[in-house]
Design brief:
With 88 residues, the protein is of the alpha/beta class. It has 4 helices and 5 strands, in the order E-H-E-H-E-H-E-H-E. The protein has a 5-stranded mixed β-sheet. Helix 3 links the parallel strand 3 and strand 4. The longest helix has 7 residues. It starts with a strand and ends with a strand. 9% of the residues are buried.
Length: 88
């Protein structure tokens, strides 16, 4: 199964308003590879359970967050960055 990456605009992290699926840009792994290392990019690994524990594939520099508890971590990230949520 091809992994899908979601680029989330800073507005979602500052709760400026809810975004619909049409508002979220999707990128593939090749586009992400080109952006890795940029100071403007934050990769959030939202995989859970066995998807996280049983894989050897992790993106270097990604921050692991609990996707079911967005309210606890969303305000901790700077609003002026581009965010990629990574899931299996």
């Amino acid at each position: 199964m091809k992994r899908i990456l979601f680029v989330i605009l800073a507005s979602i992290l500052t709760f400026a308003g809810p975004l619909g699926a049409a508002d979220v840009k999707k990128i593939d792994k090749d586009e992400l590879k080109q952006k890795l290392g940029s100071a403007e990019l934050v990769v959030l690994d939202v995989r859970t359970g066995r998807d996280w524990e049983e894989t050897e594939f992790k993106i270097r520099g990604a921050v692991r967050v609990d996707p079911s508890d967005v309210e606890s971590w969303a305000g901790k990230f700077p609003p002026d960055k581009t965010y990629v949520l990574y899931c299996a």
